[in-house]
Amino acid sequence: MSTFVEYAISALLVIGGAFTLIGAIGLARLPDFFTRLHGPTKATTLGVGAIMLSSVVYFSSAGHGIGISEILITVFLLMTAPVSANMLAKAAMHMGVKPMENTRGNPWEQ
Amino acid sequence: MMTIALYATIAMVTLAALLNVYRLIKGPDAPDRVLALDTLYVNAIALIILLSITLGTRMYLESALLLAVMGFVGTVAMAKYLKRGSVIE
Amino acid sequence: MELVYALVIGALTASGVYLLLRARTFPVVMGLTLLSYGVNLFLFSSGRLSTGQQPIIGSTTAYSDPLPQALVLTAIVIGFAMTAFVVVLSLRNLADNNDDHVDGARPESATRGKQDEEVSDK
Amino acid sequence: MSLPLVVLLPFLGAIAAPLFAQGGRTAIAIASSVPALIALAALFPHWETLSTGGTVVQSWEWLPAIGIAFSFRLDGLSLLFALLILIIGVLIILYARYYLKPTENVGKFYALLLCFKGSMLGIVLSGNLLLMLIFWELTSLTSFLLISFWNHKQDARRGARMALAVTGGGGLALLAGILIIGRIVGSYELDDVLAAGDLIKAHAMYPVALTLVLLGAFTKSAQFPFHFWLPHAMQAPTPVSAYLHSATMVKAGIFLMARLYPALAGTELWFYMVSFTGMATLLIGAYVAMFKHDLKGLLAHSTVSHLGLITLLFGMGTELAAVAAVFHVINHATFKASLFMAAGIIDHETGTRDMRRINGLWRYMPHTATLAMVAASSMAGVPLLNGFLSKEMFFAESLQLNLPGIWAWIPPIVATLAGIFAVAYSARFIHDVFFNGKPVNLPIYPPHEPPRYMKFPVEILVFACIMVGMFPAISVGPLLYSAAHATLGGAVPDYQLAVIHGFNLPLMMSIAAFVGGLIMYSQRQRFFNFHARFKEIDEKAVFEAVVSRFVNLSNRFTATLENGSLQRYAMLLVVSVIAVAAMPLINLGVFVGGNGLSPVDWPTAIAAGVLILCAFGTAAAHRERFTALVLLSVVGLIVALAFARFSAPDLAMTQLSVEVVTVVLLMLALYYMPSWTPLESSGARRFRDISLSLAAGVGMTLVTLAMLTQPFTSISDFFLENSKPGGGGTNVVNVILVDFRGFDTLGEIAVLAIAALGIYAMLKNTALTPPPGDGQGHPWTRDAHPLMLKQIARPMLPLALMISAYIFLRGHNLPGGGFIAGLITSVALVLQYIASGMVWTQDRIGFKYHNMIGLGLLFATIAGAGSLAFGYPFLTSTFDYISWPVVGKFEVASALVFDLGVYLTVIGATLLALVSIGRLSPHSAIKSPREKS
Amino acid sequence: MTHWLTAPILIPMLGGILQTFMGYAPISLRRTLGIATTALILASSLVLLALADDGSYRIYAFGNWQPPFGIVLVLDRLAALMLVMTSVLALCCHMFSIGGADEGNRQFHTLFLFQLMGLNIAFLTGDLFNLFVAFEVLLIASYGLLMHGGGTVRTVPGLHYVVLNLIGSSIFLISVGMIYSVTGTLNMADLAVKIPQVTGDNLNIVKAGGMMLLVVFALKAALLPLCFWLPKAYAKATAPVAALFAVMTKVGVYAIIRVYLLVFGNDAGELANLGMDWLFPLALATLAIGVIGALGADNLKSLVAWQVIISVGTLLAPVALGSAASLSAALFYLLSTTWTVAGLFLVAELVAHQRGSARDRIITAPRMRNRKLLGVLFMMGAVAAAGLPPLSGFFGKVLILKSVEPGPQMAWLWSVLLIGSFLTVIAYSRAGSIVFWRTVDGHLEQPEPVKGKVTTAAGTLIALTVVIVALAGPINRYTDATAQQLLDTGAYTEILQTSMVGEDD
Amino acid sequence: MLDRLSFPQPWLSLILFTTWQFLSEGISGASVVMGLLLAWLIPQITRGFWPERPAFIKPWRMPMYLLILLWDIVVASFSVARLILSPRKPRPVFVSYPLQVEHPLAISILASTISLTPGTVSADVSDDQKLLLIHTLDAEDDQSVIDAIHNRYEKPLLEMFR
Ligand code: NA
Ligand code: NA
């Protein structure tokens, strides 16, 4: 494994880890449900995507061939995260979860 | 180098998972919990990938694929339950 | 590691048993599920714990004990079938007795909401 | 062959008799008499042997393991009883011909009577104690049915049950006694037992055996304190009372004492137990008989008294007393049977048995009156009648008892006292019924003589009373001798059968009894007044009260234990497990075994911590159901991760897929359930449950820890070595599932299939009303099938199918396989249901889940059965690498077909279960208003 | 390796599969095929009985894998006896069910046949984990059957039954894990070889596992204090199901006999006769509780359900004693009591059918139809159940009484058994006299008269009690031989040396 | 009948076939055969689930769209990360976005795109599919959000789906 590959993998890993963590921090500290929804849909998805990429690089460089699984997972996450978010937002609006005070506009009646 | 990065990443993802658990337990509303669970699934995918890299084996990647599928279906089902009651009707 | 693992099984058993002893079907079902998690982990570990020794020939140098894994796989599927059945039975119970108490409708449940009332052991 | 024939004939008759019921009462009576007549003829040839003290034994092996044999034995004693049973039996049949009304179920009556007769003959002719016991209990059962012949009468039913309880129960004691005797002797054959008297009496178990046997005898023969059933058995039709309760069944206990006399008698224990019981019975029966206004009641208590007399005689233990006892058996049978029949005639003709109403019958039925008076005189002990003879012998023997000091006076005094009562109640029977003024308010008036042949049996018996009374030596001498010989097991003492033995002390006692009895009767009103001061105990009511008290107690006891509380039952189960596992676990020397602990990594520890937190959280939050469910999901997720962490990729995948299906299932159910559990358990209850749970948890922790740290070898090396060469796959877990232990898997998919079919069936007609909104009162949204979800669900189906195919095909060599593939497909289909609804999806799925389940099971079975054709056992797998042009080399394994069966079953079962629940939803058939077609 | 061993498993399996496809076929076809399948099972069981009677062990190694590695079926006398007992019972129950009890659920015959499959696997398997699977198969089918017939009365008892058995299954798995974690094997013969060699702390682990397994079997067998779920569950089940359930507790008894005589038997070293000192008093207490329950029963089915518990106590007491004589006696009694109790369940159902709203409750009601026939059947069943002569129950009890050696155990067993019989007689005579004789004036809406096949089924089971008496000699010789075979564990472990197909001997 | 044997979803079949070749670790005869089989079989099985043919007019524009999207996701993540980590309180807003695309698939793609890109999550689609409710994490005014989405994403989609 070349040093460059190793650097690339390391970078991807750390970036992935960082984004995953940031997504989680968002989930933990943002003030209301609707704002919290943003962290996982974006940061976490990207973070895991980066880790996937590092895995693809790692295993292909280790001679295991290009892993389709990781790519499938990433595509899958990108496809599903908005739907999950949409469904959860609908659920929250239905349940009358209050947005934070300074939110402009209103959630719809469900 | 890579080992350090790997361990750092594992630490970050684990921490992320802990934060998710915090949200999951704290709530306050059901959608928060489901969201946290969904995120936890995604974190778990990351952990499985990291485990695979650590072990140098691809034997666990399909588990990660399944995590993605199952996490999604679970979240959708829960969300639907919350707003509609009947998941399958 | 073994201690951590053992504590996990203990916790699963304890919480499972506690829920089994509840008076409503839903907690009981959850208790059964928790208990079966504990049981599956226990049965699994009867072949001892190992890391990265998946019993796939050629994928590694040493292999963990595959037999408990096969047993647990069977146990998981059977457990699922049983859980499904008991869940549906709970629904039948609810439908027949208009109550989700494990002992069916009880006269006391008319006064539901009265807290700290011993319902099932009279 | 003749002896078993004698026993068998009545039973055959019982089968045949009802066939003659069509022909009227006469026909059936004749038919019913035939077996007895044949039996008498069959017994006759043996007389020569018996008259010289010989025995006839006819025996066939039956169950040597139990020690029971078809062994029949005829000696003087059994002959005597057999004759009583057969002759009186025939007379009873004749009598019953007139007694029963044509409208009654005559066929049943005669059948039962014959069954009883057969059982009775069985008792007396058995040469094996266990065989005898069988007949013994059969008499209890048949008498139960006979007493309750008029089962529409409450008294009859109760009397019958009481009789059954007492005599049947006594039979069980007798069984125990016999088993002990058998164990001591090593055989149940009478010959062996009778020969082993000394052995038995010297054995440590003798007191127990004796007590148990006597319990059997006393209950059957209505000895105090078990006498109470007999008077109440008088609810039976009179022929039954006459037969069972005077001549035969109650004599079975007496017979038993006589039969086992050589084996058991002659000890102090025997003396005290038997004679005192007899004495008490003699006195109590005689006393109570005096005060009965019911004709049959008087006779019944008199019977009790006479049975006591006979028992007392046996208890005395002298040889002469035994002879007297046997003699009195004959005499009592004759006069008491005739008295019962006379009472039956009176009842029949007047419509009542109440002596306060029946008076002066002499005028209406002099013939019957004469017969009854002779028989009653015999009962009273009037000279020249047979009752006198045996009573004299009894008085004589009562004087011979070697009791110390003043105690020696007690037997003669009791005997005389009982004699006084006997004379008094006999006098009452004669005077109060046939004289004493005019009848009072008789239901049937005026009474007249019964049909001619109804009296015939009475005449025969009364004739016998007189003949024996006047010419004892000629009439009954040989029979008595042979019976006494058999009873005593050899030497018969010198005794004289004379009408009168001269003026001696026994005669004085007789005279005293006679005078005293007449005085007592003349002063009867005083005695009645005296007796009336005591509250009469209605034994039947007491018995019923005791039984119903028992029933109520049992009822309450069981209601307390079996209180219908699952919590209770589950608690008992948990406690049982903790209790049995605690001992070995406490004994664990070290908690950490030889292998020690391996190091912990932080992510695992944290995951474990989260799991523990969420597990406890689920328990703590269980009342808030959805929250608990989310926490439960976290637990499931971490369990899956744990499987991956500890080298089990197949398990991780299975767990993940099952987990999500389970959660969907739970939410499907939760829809209809309250979303919140009320707080129902008291603090104490929760404390108890928490303690139990913690005990269980700590126990499991200790076991796991000990287990994980012990060194270990298993059979698994075989699997690792043979997986590839023998099973054709590198995924050992999969090869175990489809090959090494494929049979487990077959069972497991059967479980899945049955569960789904059961669920389907269970929900078929279930109606559930879901709540209109969620727990906080929000009505459900109308948006059943959100647009985005629907749009993403569709492309996911082909994608998931491909992943399933991938997971399925690689399963034999890499993590995966039929289960996981099946679950992925199922989940993809579930997503369609969630996104687009039942109707939409169902329309597009072109198969029935039932058939899919069947097909899956069939595939698996056929794949397993394929090897049978090649002579290999079921489930023997085969695989080969086939090389095709262009395509190249690839593996074909029969196990893959098996796995395909698994795959199909999993899909069919999972979806059938989920869809069955989904179908309950009121919306399932209705399209949401937001739905675009 | 004869393929006959798989017949009692594969026949119901294929029959059950066939039935799943036939959900919408005419009921007459389903019935015919169902009965035919059950009859075939009986036929194959009889073949196995004939095979087993030579006293040898026959094994069938699935997949041609040498034990202890693969799963084996083991046929011995005990297994054959259980198979025949069950299939005779099943045929009668199945006959009864086609009188109409199978309607209202298209899956009845499927569930019924799968239940038989589970039972037969349990009797034949020589593998501890496969025994678990067999239990699950028969349990899940029994859950389905228990709930069969709709109505609300059986839901709660059914729920209790299911939940308790699910807990039981968990305990079973824990026990298997504990035993495997020490011995590294699942084959019972192999366990019998390895358990005596266990030492140290492993001994305690196996001991705890073994005791927990005993609790599981005790739960299935309905031993005190784990018996209270049974009466209501059985009393509320549809008659043919309840009758078939007569064998369910016997599976627990069978498992105790099989596992505890073989694996923890006399030769098990430190673990010899594990748990048997607990079993004896508990069995007697169970008997006592059963009698009390029977006395307090307020309907015939409850009465019979408590009789099931009485039988369990009566059976397990001699099993706990473990001598050849007591085992033989227990097996003889097992045969008798199973059929009798099942017959009584069916009779109770027939009675209930004839008595309008009074059903089978022990209360006064207008005179029923078919009183004579039903009364005779009930009485015979009661006599057999109470252990009175001349029916088979008596011989079973005498054998049990005789088998115990003098001493305190004998005193206890005799007292409890005999006093129990006495009270049972009272219970039955009371119930029978009220139900059959104590009538009030009144009009019953006349139900359809009892059908021939239904009566035949019930009558056959009751009549079997006479057949047992007639064949008592041969049966007793068989049970004696079975007991001898059971105690000779060395012979059982030789199955590990069986050669596979294609191997040289 | 012939229709029964055809490839009802050629695009789907192509995707499936290609994916299969990746999944099977190297192209071989066996993987091609199997891939063809699946590419035929799966669309056959699932044909009922695609009631209407997707109304793609210009599918070749899709890759470009996806590339833009991928880039935006990366950017989005950074901006969201900054927001999450900054102590400043966000200024969230619910925006009702007037939809011009009509095809349900197009709406879904747009909604997904919005969710994956900077600071916006599609919360709901109105019953009549004319409005999209967007929750914006931090925005000055509604109109800028609407314009940005319309120009960057909806326009290309409008061209693809018509
Ligand atoms: Na009078
Ligand atoms: Na966005």
From TrEMBL, chain A:
InterPro entries attached to this UniProt entry: PhaG_MnhG_YufB (IPR005133)
Keywords: Membrane, Transmembrane, Transmembrane helix
Transmembrane segments: 6-31, 66-89
Keyword check for RNA-binding: no
NCBIfam families: CPA3_mnhG_phaG, PRK12674.1-5
Protein name per its UniProtKB record: Na+/H+ antiporter subunit G
Protein species of origin: Marinobacter daepoensis
TrEMBL record, chain D:
Keyword Membrane in annotation: yes
NADH-Ubiquinone oxidoreductase (complex I) chain 5 N-terminal domain: residues covered: 66-110
Residue ranges occupied by any Na+/H+ antiporter MnhB subunit-related protein domain in the UniProt entry: 788-911
Record-annotated NADH:quinone oxidoreductase/Mrp antiporter transmembrane domain positions: 126-406
Location in or out of the cell: Cell membrane; Membrane
Domain MrpA C-terminal/MbhE, residue spans: 685-764
Transmembrane feature ranges: 26-44, 80-100, 109-127, 133-150, 162-185, 205-230, 270-291, 367-386, 406-425, 460-483, 503-521, 569-590, 602-621, 628-646, 652-672, 692-712, 745-763, 792-809, 815-840, 852-875, 895-917
Membrane topology: Multi-pass membrane protein
Domain of life of the organism encoding this protein: Bacteria
Record keywords: Antiport, Cell membrane, Ion transport, Membrane, Transmembrane, Transmembrane helix, Transport
PANTHER family attached to this UniProt entry: NA(+)/H(+) ANTIPORTER SUBUNIT, NA(+)_H(+) ANTIPORTER SUBUNIT A
UniProt-recorded name of the protein: Monovalent cation/H+ antiporter subunit A
Species in which this protein is naturally found: Marinobacter daepoensis
UniProtKB/TrEMBL annotation, chain E:
Subcellular localization, as worded in the UniProt entry: Cell membrane; Membrane
Pfam families: Proton_antipo_M (PF00361)
Domain NADH:quinone oxidoreductase/Mrp antiporter transmembrane: residue ranges: 126-424
Keywords: Cell membrane, Membrane, Transmembrane, Transmembrane helix
Protein's recorded name: Monovalent cation/H+ antiporter subunit D
Membrane topology note: Multi-pass membrane protein
Family (UniProt): Belongs to the CPA3 antiporters (TC 2.A.63) subunit D family.
TM regions (residue ranges): 6-25, 32-51, 71-96, 108-125, 131-149, 161-182, 211-230, 242-263, 278-297, 304-325, 331-352, 373-391, 411-428
Nucleotidyltransferase in keyword set: no
TrEMBL record, chain F:
Main location: membrane
Lineage top rank: taxon: Bacteria
Keywords from the named record: Cell membrane, Membrane, Transmembrane, Transmembrane helix
Subcellular location: Cell membrane
Segments traversing the membrane: 20-43, 64-85
Topology with respect to the bilayer: Multi-pass membrane protein
Pfam family, one: MNHE
InterPro entries: Cation_antiport_E
Family, similarity comment: Belongs to the CPA3 antiporters (TC 2.A.63) subunit E family.
Protein name: Na+/H+ antiporter subunit E
Organism: Marinobacter daepoensis
Higher taxonomy: Bacteria, Pseudomonadati, Pseudomonadota, Gammaproteobacteria, Pseudomonadales
